[in-house]
Amino acid sequence: MDNLTRKQLIKILHSNDFEALIKLYAETLEKWNEQNVIGKDTFDTLKLLFIRDGKKQGLKEFFDFLENPEQT
Question: Predicted confidence band at 57 (pLDDT cuts at 50, 70, 90)?
């Protein structure tokens, strides 16, 4: 990542507006946690669980990166 992009991310992180992203993050996780993951059979249920957990993990990794962009 170039320095300009890194500086822009740090600026966003320290902005008051970042709180809106944190709220969106929490609401999105809550929505995903409330989704029905009961499929028509065991395989379908596991697939739905893995998809949901993958989305949650990806979102968490994205926000972890936003909070510490120097790691890249």
Answer: very high
Q: Where are the chain's structural domains?
A: 3-71
Tokens 């809550």 belong to residue: 30
Q: What is the DSSP string of 5-61?
A: HHHHHHHHHTSTTHHHHHHHHHHHHHHHHHS----SSHHHHHHHHHHHHHHHHHHHH
Q: Is the pTM of this model over 0.90?
A: no
Q: How far is Cα 61 from Cα 59, in angstroms, rounded to an integer?
A: 5
Q: How many whole angstroms separate alpha carbon 21 and alpha carbon 66?
A: 11
Please compute, for residue 20, the number of CA atoms within 13 A of its CA located in the half-sphere on the CB side. Answer: 4
